[in-house]
User: What shape does this take?
Amino acid sequence: MQETMHMLLYRAFHAQRNILRPYMRTLGLGAGQPKLIAYLAEHGPCRQRELADYFEVDPAAISRMVESLEKGGFITVAADGKDRRRNLLSTTDRGLEAARAWLAKRAQVEEIMLRGFSPEEREAFSAYLTRARQNYVGWKEEHPCET
Assistant: This one.
């Protein structure tokens, strides 16, 4: 039986997550948090809304992760009045260290995934995934009531 594209993507994602999740815990990070501190480390301080928009995640989920990251000493939150979504988020030294470690591990796991792929295949695979995401985003914009 040939697997559907959905199942192939899910299984590849799940296999990757099974390698990364234990490492994430060794850094003291919870689900979804590594991508936030990695973003902050790569792009600098930003507001919660920027994170929610970039990762296409509900702002409330970002808020919960931010609260936990702040409690863990990974980020600082500069208050901007009563609207927490306008708070400016920055990594601490602990957050930068965790982000660097996460990015190195992520690159290692990416190399495992792409083992045996030629440079041309890697480029094509990246282009296919980018196009697939663009198709979903375009469809959602055209059919806002169906999501």
